[in-house]
Design brief:
The complex is a heterodimer.
Chain A (H helix, E strand, L loop, with lengths): L5 E6 L2 E6 L3 E3 L3 E6 L2 E6 L1 H7 L2 E6 L5 E3 L4 E7 L2 E6 L4 E6 L1 H5 L2 H5 L8 E4 L7 H23 L2
Antiparallel strand pairs in A: 1-2, 3-4, 4-5, 5-11, 6-8, 7-10, 8-9, 10-11
Chain B lengths: L6 E6 L6 H15 L4 E6 L10 H8 L4 E5 L3 H10 L5 E2 L35 E6 L6 H14 L19 H8 L45 E2 L9 H5 L5 E3 L5 E3 L11 H5 L5 E2 L6 H4 L11 E2 L9 H15 L14 H4 L7 H11 L3
Parallel strand pairs in B: 1-2, 1-3, 3-5, 4-5
Antiparallel strand pairs in B: 6-9, 7-8
The chains are: A alpha+beta, B alpha/beta.
Chain lengths: ~150, ~375
């Protein structure tokens, strides 16, 4: 598999592209090395579930040391509201200010200009194949969770 | 209209100096002052009032139905009042949040859940709690207040001033409650301050107390128990390591030392299996007393997918933060973690189990 290839996970009829040129976390974020840090953004799987992002808010400052699962912000979209959490322990170096003020790029260009923040971390990460395995293992459960919430 | 029973409207003012909130409060007060069927009063933010605050002394003496306008979820306002001896049935407001959809039905009568222990000695009169965050137009509130005034029952119930705290307090608990800043076994404090507007003896209808002259109260942070949900399971008293909870003479759970509570920490609320513990000032609506089951502005919560820790993990983390801040050792998940997890029968293996095993294998 070359660096430029992508894997695809079928969410029903929707093909979620998983580029092989980067790493992933099980919380549906991609991480790509940029200099000494990892640039972090939403995977196509996340964006498909979120749909149009209206609002993004970070509640920690740049240069904050974060632990895994620490709440760092909130997101609201046409379909969902959610808190956002650090994918692993590390230091949150900076946020993508452009996306923070206008989150459109999360929908239009999630794997490039729609990145969210840069993180310094030594934590182990998934490769594209491993992330695909996570998606395959979790898809039934995710559908059930969403349907469950809608039927509450 | 001569002879018609008046309804009391109490506006509980927002803490701080938000001009938009002040304007809404003042417009409502001004409009209600000239209404014939309404007695209007202003008190500070309900959450922040101490038991001997004149605003609460006034509220305890108001007979009959009361409309309370506050910057709180109705459940939070109703149970703050209950704790403070301002008791009554929850009145049903038809007011909807501006964001709520039109398909939202009329809310059902408040009903204690089957296993809930319920509030004690609740008189028949009604407390209508309206959330001032729902709408920005004073007219909407005025229309609703007029509607409530029309439907208001006329019966009044004398309130025993000692029938508060949701049960039968032990003498020392009563003392701590009335004098929250005294040492536990300290000398009795001064007797309660006179009610706002020099209100007369209990039993008489007090004059309207527009604008109290007290200093704005200090911000407070403490849990409120919703006894229509609480089952007295004692998970909260087991989990909290700061001595906030106690039991009364009937062995009912109560918030005994509310000022032992750690500002910003809602851990016990997350541990409560009935979502019966309200922190009125918490940013998460479900913890601050929102009716989570009836959220018309429905959106999916993807937090779990995005890596949210479980409620128990959060609660233990929050508790550890406060323990360390007090110079004590963090205890993680080793103390007071709900027993209900142990007795829970293992369900059949499902996709989530497989997913979790796969994640473990990947050591992420």
């Amino acid at each position: 598999m070359s660096e430029s290839e992508s894997l695809v996970f079928m969410m029903g009829q929707f093909p979620a592209r998983i580029p092989a040129d980067r790493r992933y976390s099980s919380s549906h974020l991609w991480l790509q090395p940029v200099g000494d840090v990892w640039r972090v953004g939403f995977t196509a799987y996340s964006v498909r579930l979120l749909q149009d992002v209206y609002f993004l808010n970070w509640n920690v400052d740049p240069e904050t040391v974060v632990r895994a699962k620490q709440e760092i912000g909130e997101i609201e979209s046409s379909k969902a509201v959610s808190s956002l959490y650090a994918p692993c322990e590390g230091r949150l170096v900076r946020f993508n200010e452009k996306v923070a003020s206008d989150p459109t790029a999360i929908n239009t260009d999630n794997y490039e200009t729609g990145w969210l923040y840069e993180l310094e971390t030594q934590a182990p990460l998934l490769d594209a194949r491993e992330y695909l395995a996570v998606l395959e293992a979790g898809w039934e459960q995710t559908q059930r969770m969403i349907k469950g919430q809608m039927n509450e | 209209m001569a002879g018609q029973k008046k309804i009391t409207v109490v506006i509980s003012q927002a803490p701080g100096r938000n001009p938009a909130k002040r304007e809404l409060e003042e417009e409502l007060a001004a409009a209600l002052l000239v209404e014939n069927e309404v007695d209007v009063s202003l008190v500070p933010h309900l959450n922040d009032l101490t038991a001997d605050h004149s605003g609460l002394l006034y509220l305890r003496r108001v007979p009959g139905d009361v409309v309370i306008l506050s910057w709180l979820y109705p459940r939070a306002a109703r149970w703050i009042l209950d704790r403070n001896g301002v008791k009554g049935q929850m009145g049903i407001s038809l007011l909807k949040s501006a964001e709520a959809g039109d398909d939202e039905g009329i809310p059902a009568e408040e009903e204690a859940r089957p296993n809930a222990i319920g509030a004690l000695e609740v008189p028949k009169r009604k407390l209508y709690c309206l959330d001032l965050r729902d709408q920005s137009e004073p007219r909407v509130y005025l229309d609703e207040i007029r509607r409530i005034a029309r439907e208001a029952s006329v019966q009044t119930v004398g309130l025993d001033l000692m029938q508060w705290i949701g049960g039968s307090p032990q003498p020392a608990q009563l003392q701590r409650y009335l004098n929250p800043f005294l040492p536990v076994n300290g000398a009795p404090g001064p007797s309660a301050a006179p009610a706002a507007g020099g209100a007369s003896d209990a039993g008489e209808v007090p004059p309207p107390a527009v604008a109290t002259t007290d200093e704005p109260p200090k911000r407070r942070w403490y849990p409120i128990i919703d006894y229509s949900r609480c089952t007295n399971c004692m998970e909260c008293i087991d989990f909290c390591l700061f001595g906030v909870y106690g039991v009364d003479t009937l062995d009912r759970i109560l918030v005994e030392q509310q000022d032992n509570c750690k500002k910003g920490c809602p851990a016990c609320s997350r541990v409560c299996p009935e979502n019966a513990i309200i922190f009125p000032e918490h940013k998460t609506p479900a913890i601050a007393g929102a009716e989570v089951e009836r959220d018309a502005n429905f959106k999916i919560d993807l937090s779990k997918l995005f890596g949210a820790p479980s409620a128990l993990e959060i609660a233990a983390q929050e508790r550890d933060t406060e323990l360390v801040r007090d110079g004590r050792d963090a205890v993680g998940m080793s103390v007071g973690v709900p027993k209900r997890q142990e007795s829970k029968p293992a369900g059949p293996r499902d996709a989530l189990d497989d997913l979790m095993d796969d994640l473990d294998k990947l050591s992420v």
